[in-house]
């Protein structure tokens, strides 16, 4: 019998392109080649799909971020076929055969936001992770907070600044944001990996921060600063009908001198530390794990997610955000949380592939 074919897809048309490659490199190293045939596929910044080159670089080297090498054969995934087709200008297309499951190690817009999930649904291909709706809601922080609040989880105060309001009613939206009280954090509504985020302590910084965030997304979120420790929890769907499981919670600390958990703190060496389990009361840890599962279920997530909270000095837990495809290198927070909970990185990758293989494409 032939082995199941797993296509690991990485890259993408957004600012988290390099982050995707770093995670994909770890996944490719971890997949059991005795059980699966693996096809590495890169999506270039211009949207081209290519078979990964044999010397494709996945790690940061000498401070340089990796990107998709476009010298490989161009690929297409025709709707409804589930089969990859390789083509080059002037050449006859070559069918490479069907794919049993796609592992989209991708983040941000045109990837984690439901777009690649919708494409795979149209193609009739199984894939790792959440479906279209959960991915889209999880990516849009404004709608995410609306759904989370409806599920009864506490969230911090925030203001949404949409493109039209910024262009036509700038003074009004700035006043609304200032009512949150300084300092505030300003972030793109639909970006991740701390891209485009800045802290503002006065009107001038607020206006500059909004313009900076708008370089990534015309829709911007302004959040009141919450003083508290950042505690994160990973959630994993059950292989059967059991409820989703939550990892041990872990506390993230910035070690590189940054004012908050920015891109460098997340992805450059020795910039952050993770303590698992977090040094919080046992009853608080159990409450946090239950809240993480509730957030996972509220968005109807599948596969995996990472849920982030603030733990305040008076013992309150406040939801921050959920990531439906969190950073996925072997040293990223979610895999480390599972490793500390007894599930190694290779075992986590195997579980996610099996979860994807066990479900059918389409409405569920």
- Report the structural category: alpha+beta
Work out the helicity level. 25-40%
What's the name of the CATH homologous superfamily of the largest domain? ATP-grasp fold, B domain
Strand content: 15-25%
CATH class of the largest domain: Alpha Beta
Largest sheet: 6 strands, antiparallel
Query: How many helical stretches?
Result: 11
Would you tell me the overall average pLDDT? 90
Look up the CATH topology of the largest domain.
D-amino Acid Aminotransferase, Chain A, domain 1
Protein described:
With 364 residues, the protein is an alpha+beta fold. The chain folds into three domains: 5-127, Rossmann fold (3-Layer(aba) Sandwich); 137-155 and 227-358, ATP-grasp fold, B domain (D-amino Acid Aminotransferase, Chain A, domain 1, 2-Layer Sandwich), CATH 3.30.470.20; 158-224, ATP-grasp fold, A domain (Dna Ligase, domain 1), CATH 3.30.1490. It has eleven helices and 18 strands. The strands form four sheets. Strands 13, 14, 15, 16, 17 and 18 form a six-stranded antiparallel sheet that branches. A five-stranded mixed sheet has the order 3-2-1-7-8, sandwiched between helices. The two termini are 29 Å apart. Residues 145-354 form the ATP-grasp domain. Mg(2+) 1 binds at residues 308, 321.
